[in-house]
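Researcher: Structure for this, please.
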Amino acid sequence: MADTQVDDEQHDAAVDNEKQQAKADRKAARLAKQIVSFRQAHGGAEAQLAYIGRRGARIVLVGEDGDWGDLMAPSFAIAQSATTKAGVTVHETFDGDFAAKVRTGPYEWKRMAGIQLGSPGKH
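Model: Predicted structure, token format:
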């Protein structure tokens, strides 16, 4: 009887793993679809992945036209899978030529200045 219980527990664990993997694959596919959409709208795209702890990973996208955006993935592995499925180049760091492609507008400059100088409501 003990062997049957072990077999049942192993089977249940395998089924749970399969379900979790299927869920991760679906999430990666949804993210990949969004990445492809961004890539098509901006004449191409490149990415950088940033592990942000328990919250998962941030996928930063930079289009060939300089526009940028980001997506959140529940794990670094899902972020990697999504960018692979989407067929974009992934940079290890956000510096150099890759960072130089980003076009920032007035909103970003104003926000960066507020972070550096402190927002008006915090004095």
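Researcher: Any notable elements?
Model: The chain is about 55% helix and 20% strand. The chain has a mean pLDDT of 87.
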